[in-house]
From TrEMBL:
The keyword Membrane does not apply. One of its GO terms (cellular component) is nucleoid. This is Single-stranded DNA-binding protein. Homotetramer. It comes from Caproicibacterium amylolyticum. Residues 125-153 have a biased composition (Low complexity). Transmembrane segments: none annotated.
Amino acid sequence: MLNVVVLMGRLVADPELRHTPNDVAVTTIRIAVDRAYSKSGADKQTDFIDVTAWRQTAEFVSRYFTKGSMIAVQGSLHVDNYTDRDGNKRTRYDVQADNVSFCGSKRESGTGGYEGGNSYGGGSSSYSNSGANTYQQPSAPATAPAPAAPAYSSGDTGDFQALPDDDDLPF
């Protein structure tokens, strides 16, 4: 079975960090995502998706993201069935965030200064909400560069031709 959700959109409001009685950090954010509903993709509708982040991910989101920030979320779909005050059965869906990443630039969202590239949940500096739940700082570069590996050779190329230089490609 597979339960993986990947979303990219903008925060609808500033995140608010809360703590459970056991002092576990949690924040629930709502992101606006576009969904094409025609074959051509020209007609789009905006969906508003609730996302819950826990522990260090919640602290990271509440510290570095603000209303209008572009965010990428990878997590799983969580279904909550409950009965409301009137006795009606209800279902609520939200995404439990495992990884979050910056997307785009702050210049796009109007807050100035940041040019994307950092990723929390993958990439050079990474954070994943699984396992020990600890932020991992990227390792410092080595003082001396490692010797270059020999060029990869796949052996006999048979009927394949060598590709022209990149400057000769038509695109």
